Amino acid sequence: VPLYFKHAKGARLTDVDGNEYVDFVCGFGPVILGHGHEEVCAAAARGARNVQQTGGQHLAEVELAEAIAGTVPSVETVRFSTTGSEAVHGALRLARAVTAKNLVVKFASHYHGWLDGVFHTIGAMPPGLPDGAGVATGSSADVVVVEWGDETALEELFRRAGKAIAAVIMEPLPCNQGVFYPPDGFLEAARRITAEYGALLVFDEVITGFRIGLGGAQGLFSVTPDITVLAKSMANGFPLSAFGAGHDLMGMVARNEAVHAGTYNGGGSSVAAGLATIEALCRDEGHYERMERLGSRLKAGLESSAKVHGLNLQTRGPGPVFYAWFTDGRMVDSLSDHLKADMALYTRFAELMLDEGVRIIPAGRWYLTTAHEDPEIDRALEAADSSLARLSG
Ligand SMILES: Cc1ncc(COP(=O)(O)O)c(C=O)c1O
To answer: Looking at the whole model, is its pTM more than 0.90?
Structure first.
């Protein structure tokens, strides 16, 4: 439904016709403190007035870099970009430069942005094919796709081709085609195998960074990658991303041997928004507990309401970002289960929810913000109850 919005505040949106919606799309993930967060907006305005674009460094970048290094375990030094796709590109360029190898291993269903080098096997495409028209065919030769969680396949691949592999990139908590926790020990295995063969482990925490906790997925799972990519929740919706690692690894970028460029990198308003967002998140770690509690309430309410109406709705993932599917009752634990779920029914559910004043992503992912409170969850559960009744009727 091509909605046009005229106002967004906290957890609520208003469209051009004056209809109000409780929002669970949250800008597809970046909005973590709620829309129009006063402190972040004021900081961004000050940042724009103070140092917006000089083509040089400015102090706020250092403060933001220190704030990130203080919270994300793998990061000592960062480079700022504007989008997640660019920061992934920077991370992989760095990995290839440092290892002097070319191949990148990614996992089926993991999304790392829309650039050619990683736009492979995100949905139902067989391994080795790009996910849409117009992607450079040559880019497929630089990527090897492995099933998520398949330690044996990863180990076997390294045994065969380890000499050529520069990096393994993953969403450590995959969120794009279903939210799926890694199988027990898999992140540790990826850490061990990459280290053994001299490849770098890259965690794409574009969604999970600052969303599921201050330390992101690496904080949650206590596995430390070589390079981390951050974006979305680090600046509450302002265009800001980063890739970071230890001082030694980042040296090649600092010395301009591995080039990372971008006219708008480190723009004053985005950097100020990032700093204000991280400060607000750090000030009250209770934010994450609250999102977890509200998300749990929401997930349980959706599942039980569906049951009452004779439907099978399953949810997976932590409170601040989770996924929901209609299934035939089987558990959804993998990409192939995800692809078997009833997407047409879910799309209809999302349309009915919109009618009821609740905006959700038709693909199945839900995001919460620190601005969501019990009344927003109540409202979503009431809307779900009547939407599910209409769906089953
Ligand atoms: C895990 C992950 N990596 C990278 C990206 C690309 O980020 P952007 O859309 O800012 O280019 C996304 C976007 O959704 C993402 O979810």
So the answer is: yes
User: Residue 305 C-alpha to ligand 1 middle, in angstroms?
Assistant: 32
Q: Residue 100: how many CB atoms within 10 A of its CB?
A: 8
- What are the residues whose beta carbons fall under 8 Å from the beta carbon of 360, sequence distance 6 or more? 24, 25, 350, 353, 354, 366
Residue 200 C-alpha from the chain's centroid: 20
Percent of the chain with pLDDT over 90: 88
E strand or H helix at 324, and its extent?
strand 321-326
Ligand 1 centre to CA of 115 (Å) is: 10
Question: Ligand 1 centre from 106 Cα, in Å?
Answer: 14
Q: Compute the distance between CA of residue 39 and CA of residue 156 in angstroms, rounded to an integer.
A: 50
Residues with CB under 6 A from ligand 1: 83-85, 88, 111-113, 171, 176, 204, 206-207, 231
How many whole angstroms from its chain centre is CA 28?
A: 9
Sorted by sequence, the CB contacts under 8 Å of residue 44 that are 6+ apart come out as 238, 269, 270, 272, 273, 276
Predicted confidence (pLDDT) per residue in 293-311, tens digit: 999 999 999 999 999 999 9
DSSP class of 26: G
Instruction: Please give the pLDDT value at position 128.
Output: 63
Adjacency order of strands within the sheet including 313-316: 313-316, 321-326, 365-367
Over residues 269-286, mean pLDDT: 96
Residue 1 has pLDDT above 90, yes or no: no
Catalytic residues: 111, 204, 232
- Residues 359, 380 contacting (CB under 8 angstroms): no
Task: Please report the pLDDT score of residue 335 as a whole number.
Answer: 83
